């Protein structure tokens, strides 16, 4: 990216030490580090946005190629209805011919002597919670 040799970095460090001074140099390096971090973050955000645009363009190109290939395959191998497979009209006709279900048979009569007995009692948990 940037072609900076170690000797150039050493020269910059010496100039910074002379110009800024040893007392304020740590504070200046902290501020410089902060700004370098912000620039790197903006560059990372720009690059991720650019990569997303490239991926989206590649995806659209791939979809176009797939659609062309699908159209080519469908032209070469058209779908022919299978003679053995039922058509929707055949299925509708078969549904119309089906007999409706008969109503359920009434329950058998209760044996003699059982008519006056009450049904099963509620479970104890039902009585405690007040459910019915």
Task: List its salient traits.
single chain; elongated; 63% helix; 132 residues; mainly alpha
Number of helices, where a helix is a run of at least 4 consecutive DSSP H or I residues: 4
Task: Output mean pLDDT.
Answer: 80
Strand content: under 5%
Number of DSSP strands? 0
Measure the end-to-end span.
79 Å
Report Rg. Answer: 42 Å
Low-confidence stretches: none
Q: What is the global morphology? A: elongated
Helix-strand pattern: HHHH
- Report the structural category: mainly alpha
Main β-sheet: number of strands, strand sense, barrel status?
A: none
Which bin fits the share of residues in helices? 55-70%
What does the secondary structure layout of this molecule look like, with pairings?
Elements: H1 6-20, H2 25-76, H3 88-97, H4 124-129
Q: Could you give a short description of this structure?
A:
The chain is mainly α and 132 residues long. The chain has helices at 6-20, 25-76, 88-97, 124-129.
Structure notes:
The longest helix is centred in the middle third of the chain and has 52 residues, at 25-76. The model has no long low-confidence stretch (mean pLDDT 80). This protein has a domain at 26-77. It is mainly alpha-helical. 63% of the residues lie in helices and 0% in strands. It has helices at 6-20, 25-76, 88-97, 124-129. It is built from four helices and no strands.
């Amino acid at each position: 990216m940037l072609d900076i040799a170690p000797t150039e970095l050493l020269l910059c460090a010496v100039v910074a030490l002379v110009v800024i001074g040893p007392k304020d140099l740590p504070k200046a390096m902290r501020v410089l580090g902060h700004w370098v971090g912000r620039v790197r973050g903006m560059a990372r955000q720009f690059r991720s946005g650019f990569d997303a645009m490239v991926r989206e363009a590649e995806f659209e190109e791939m979809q176009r190629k797939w659609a062309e290939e699908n159209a080519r395959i469908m032209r070469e191998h058209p779908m022919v209805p299978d003679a053995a497979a039922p058509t929707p009209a055949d299925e509708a006709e078969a549904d119309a011919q089906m007999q409706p279900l008969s109503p359920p048979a009434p329950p058998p009569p209760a044996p003699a002597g059982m008519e006056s007995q009450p049904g099963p009692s509620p479970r104890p948990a039902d009585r405690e919670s007040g459910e019915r």
